[in-house]
Amino acid sequence: MATHAGRLGDPFEALRRVGGRELAAIVGAVLAARLGRVPVLLDGYVCTAAAAVLHAAEPTALDHCLVAHLSTEPGHRRLVERLDKRPLLDLDMRLGEGTGATLAAGVVRAAVRAHSGMATFDEAQISDKER
Known about the structure:
Layout: H1 11-18, H2 21-35, E1 40-43, H3 44-57, E2 65-71, H4 76-82, E3 89-93, H5 99-117
Parallel strand pairs: 1-2, 2-3
Helix pairs in contact: 1-3, 2-3
C-alpha cells in the first residue's frame, strides 16, 4: 500500500493498482449486469469488496444488487453496512464457491413468486374500509 500511497483516491485506479484480474472481472460483470438491468447476488466478502469499487465511484451503482449472505470473513459486516445493504442470509457460512448465493437464490425466487402471484386489493375485492 505504501508503494501506491497518494494514488488510490480514484476507485478504479485503486482497483488497477491493488486488485487482481479476478476482482476486475467481478467489477465488469456487475457493471454489465447493471447496464443490462440484470439483478445480481453478491456472494461473500471478495465479491462484495469488488462491487464496492462501483459503489465508491457512484453510490447508486449497486442498486440492482443484493448481498446473498453475511460471510464470517472479518470486515464483511462493516463492508455490507458501508454499502447500505442488508444480507438475505446470516448463517455463519464460510464455504465460498457461491454457496451463499445458491441458497439466497431460492429465497429470491420465492419472494418473486409470492409477489407476482399476489392479488391486488381490487382483485381480492378488499374495500377501502378494510384496508
